[in-house]
Structures are given as structure tokens and as C-alpha cells.
Amino acid sequence: MGITVTSIGMRGRTCVGALALVGALVVGGCGAQGLSGAMRSTPSVDQALATLASEHAQSVPDGALVTAGTLTVGINTKVETVPLYFANADGAISGLDVDLASALAEQMGLKVSFVSVSDPAAALGVTCDVVMNYSGTDAAGTVAPAGTDVTTACSYAETAPALFGKKLSGTLSGSDLTGKRVGVQAGSKSASALERTSLSLQSTGYNNLNDAFSALEGGDVDYVLCEAYPGAYLAQSHADVAMGGILGEPTPKGIAVLGTNADLRQGVSDAFSALRESGAYDLVRAHWVGSLPNLGAADQVKGVPTKGTPEAAANAAGALAGGQSASASTGTMGANEGASSAGNAGDGSTAGANAVS
Predict the structure, then answer these.
(1) Strand 111-116 to strand 241-246: parallel, antiparallel, or no bridges (unpaired)?
(2) Half-sphere exposure in the Cβ direction for 337 (13 Å, CA)
(3) Cα–Cα dist 53/23, whole Å
(4) 204 with 184: CB under 8 angstroms?
(5) Which of 14-18, 23-27, 60-64 has the lowest mean pLDDT?
(6) Domains of the chain in sequence order
(7) What is the 3-state secondary structure (H, E, C) of the chain?
(8) φ, ψ of residue 52 in degrees (nearest 5)
(9) Residue 356 or 300, more confident
(10) In the structure, what pLDDT confidence band is assigned to residue 147 with cuts at 50, 70 and 90?
């Protein structure tokens, strides 16, 4: 289990032009038909999107697009990566990826269409123009084959395990975590990342991030460690909860295009720059992840020893002498202790079946 989105509250309205219209696009199925065929929008929505797109001149030639006048956006709908992408029970899709892609299309003077993509390298230039949430692999971890000309037009998000706590100011250090209680989603990548450290703390595994954040709010744990973006999404519904830093270097997430499609690559890059300059990109981010910054080296928790280093050995010895857990792996990790798989890799990236926009 991951985030049960209903506990966070209704989040269907956004602040940027066509973004509010995206919620009207409904998924009818995710097979070979793709979302562009399965997602039926009402004529009024189609007209509104066309009107919004017409406010900007089309910035890329039709020859650079799969469908003339339309930015066809690929999303791996089989991997719900809250808050980047998720679908609710009736098929309506939401998320930062959906909103950002819609804003990009508007900026480029195009309509927008969404298709389900499982293999970015095979889909680009054939069934879609761009693929969201790409960092050399797609959301499911699918790696582009060697020699495939897939490149990133721009980076818009990052992934990294992040610590969240109450009434935090500034970035935490490793010493701040000594003797503290940390909640994680059992079996997640963040739980595995914590196990690779030798921090002297007590870790507790939870079935989902909602439970972990409830434990934080109730005082049962001092911090929650989870992927930064799902954590920031949840933190907005918990008083005084903020990010206190990340473990390790963040991995950027971007918008993939064919490297040979120079017109489209430049068009997406220019449109993204325009959204940043106008503040529209910040509005999209704020809607989904609040005040979370774009993550970088300055956000890393300093002084975190990893297993096998002299600092780790010293920490372990001191912790054992003091009766504390020597490392995260000695804490209560739950039934899936140490597991990390594509299906449960995002500690909260998998939305519940009753997710709502």
C-alpha cells in the first residue's frame, strides 16, 4: 500500500490556465488503444483547450508532432507516482505531470493529449511526442536500449529519500537523528536507503505513508523518511510538518523526447523556460508539493555515515553501548523488511484504489 489519497483532501483545482480542465479528461482503459483514444473529453473542454492554445502561436511545426496541432504526452499509467501522476476510481487522472504537460502544451500553442506508455524508447515519435517522469528510465524503471536516441528536454522534478518532521528550520545533520524515532514505509526504497546508513536511531515500518505521517503528528515518531515528492504532498495536510533534508544526491526527473527531433526538443525547452519565468511552473509545484524546493546538494543531510566506514563503526559501537538500535535494520521494519521492488518502490508513490483528484 502507498498513499491513500482520500485522506489528504480534494485537490482537483489548479491555478494555471488549462490545468483546471485536465480533471475533465477521463481514462476509459489503458491498453493498446492508449489514453488519447480512451480519454473522452466533452466538446466544451475541447473548445476551451483550443481557445487557451490559440492564445500562443504554435511554436513547433506539425512535422515534429505525432498529431498535428497536439502535444501527445506519454505517461506510464501502470505506475502511479503520487503526486506526479495518479488516477481515481472513475478514471480521472491528476498530478503534477498532467498539469505541467497541459501548461507546456498551452505555452506551445498546442492542444494536449495523453497516452499510456510502457516503453519510452519505442513510443517516442510513434505514439507520443514526449514522456514524463524520465531519468534514463521511465517511472517503472524501464531502461532505454543502448543506442536509442532518447534525451531529456528539461528537468522539472527530483527523486530522493527525504526526512520530514515537525517545526523544522534548516537542514538536519546526522547528529540530529541520534536516538530519534524514524517512521518509514516498510519495503520501500527509502527504508532500504536508511538500512545502508549506520545512523543510531530507532526505525519503525508502516504499511503506508498515511500511517507514518499520522504517527508523526501523534508524536509516535520524530521523523518520517520517504520519497521527497510524496512526502511533501502529504505534509501539506499535517500542521507544522516540513522537509528537513535528503539522504544522498537527488536524481533529476525530466521530459523525454527523441534526440533527433530538434524542433520539438527546443520547443519543449523554450516553453518550460517561459513557464518558469512567468511563475506558472511554481504555481503547479506549489499545488502538488507546497513549498518543497527543487532539490540539490544544499538539501542533503550532512554527516550521515554509511555501513563499512570508520564513522559507521564508531556509531554502531556507541549505540550498542547506550542500548540503542545500531542501525535502521535493527528497528521494526514490518512484514516487508528489506524488500524493494518496482511495485512498491516509491514509498507512497502507489496510490490507493480510492485515490481522488
Answers:
(1) unpaired
(2) 11
(3) 17
(4) yes
(5) 23-27
(6) 57-158+251-295 (3.40.190.10), 161-246 (3.40.190.10)
(7) CCCCHHHCCCCCCCCCCCHHHHCCCECCCCCCCCHHHHCECCHHHHHHHHHHHHCCCCCCCHHHCCECCEEEEEECCCCCECCCEEECCCCEEECHHHHHHHHHHHHCCCEEEEEECCCHHHHECCCECEEEEECCECCCCCECCCCCCEEEEEEEEEECEEEEEECCCCCCEHHHHCCCEEEEECCCHHHHHHHCECCCCEEEEECCHHHHHHHHHHCCCCEEEEEHHHHHHHHCCCCCEEEEEECCCCEEEEEEEECCCHHHHHHHHHHHHHHHHHCHHHHHHHHHHCCCCCCCHHHECECCCECCCHHHHHHHHHHHHCCCCCCHHHCECCCCCCCCCHHHCCCCCCCCCCCCC
(8) -65, -45
(9) 300
(10) low
Q: Taking the complete model, does pTM exceed 0.85, yes or no? A: no
Q: Which of 97, 66, 80 is nearest to 4 (CA)?
A: 80
Tell me the percentage of the chain whose pLDDT exceeds 70: 68
Q: Give the tens place of pLDDT for each residue, 160-184.
A: 999 999 999 899 999 999 999 999 9
Q: How confident is the model at residue 53 (pLDDT cuts 50, 70, 90)?
A: low
* 166, burial (CB in 10 Å: exposed 0-12, middle 13-18, buried 19+): middle
